[in-house]
Please model this.
Amino acid sequence: MIGRLIDVGLDVVRLNFSHGTHDAHQAVLSRVREAAVARGLHLPVLGDLCGPKLRIGPIAPGSTLAPGAYCTIRRGAEPGNAEGFGTNCPLVVDEAQVGHRVLIDDGLLQLRVTKKTPDGLSCVCEVGGPISSAKGLILPDTDLSLPALTEKDEADVAWAITHRVDYLALSFVRRAEDVTDLRDRLNIAGANIPIVSKIETPQAISALDEIIAVSDALLVARGDLGVTTELTGLPILQKDIIQRCARAGRPVIVATQMLQSMISQPTPTRAEVSDVANAVFDGADAVMLSAETASGAYPVEALTVMNRITERIADFERQRPPAGSLGLARELTVGHATDPTTAAVARSAVNVASDLDAAWIAVWCRTGTTATWISKYRPRQRVVGLSADVEVCRRLGLVYGVTPFLVTEPASEHRAILTTAALRLGLPPVRPQSEALVLMVGNPQASRREPVLSIHRLRPAALS
Model:
């Protein structure tokens, strides 16, 4: 099944640490690596940490909360019912205040705190329904002083380091310090794993620019974000997050219910197709399937549809007149605040490639930063990330429009490397009578990134 998914367009595999065991994750990871190598691909694997997920305690079967009824949220986790129940986190009782909302089961049930005592919260039910054990608990109005990493997360981080996972996603990020704390742990362990910050809390929205600055990528987690914020404002938040990531040169993923109906149906709704397309139009680097492929009845069909939508929109964007393209938009300056010189080179590369009608853009990659910044301008040309590091090649799999290529020739052999890449990747020129103008960014022999642009012509004779 993993092989079939790769064949229809899979770019990144997510291991959801909220479910399964380390042995089960190891089995999936091994299959992914084997299937990718067999196809000559560099496929990144993202480990998704659980984070401090709040849940209610045991509930008697058949319990229902009626609108207007009162119930008590207790400090302990002893068995309860609709009249009172516990949680897995005593801080809920300590830090929630009168007037704060309490959402259960992704907001299907809604309570509001009316009275507070040392041992519990008295709440009135505003939206009722069946209530059962271990359902998720969200307090959108309460800034709980929870650690970013739980004991389980720490064990999962250690496993991810040992097994060389390509990305780590941090759940329920609320402030930049949550990200830097994880970064410090990785640095102490000598692990250079990029961090994907999941934006799903109101606190994260308030500190968005600071979180982007310390993150390697972001994920718009529309599930919890749509519960903890005003649902009708979710499309605006999605666009704002993507635009800020574009300016900062950070890859961004859009997730949750992209093709939800395909969990049980072989075709999507028209609204879902538009939703995926709009995420691409907004500038997302990736769109993510969750239950559709993890537990749905039509995983291959769902991924096939997702890939067809994204390719169709990408083709449409490439055919737009240059004046209307994101790539040449005057208001977009990627990475300028971080590194003005490299940012200027990235922007110039897109303009030069457009002016000269280059066949493709080759970027020498030590970390992938420059290739990522170039991709944010959405050039018409295919971007090829050249790297001698297989882990960098895998990580480039998350970045929009960048094809990774593992370099095995000496770094001084520019033309040989470009020729080999063209042959193996099927890049232009592909017809005997044509030649390809390739724009190359960077200097592979330099000890650090250098702001160098060079132009190379690959003639058909060299590719025969």
Remarks:
- The chain is about 35% helix and 20% strand.
- The mean pLDDT is 91.
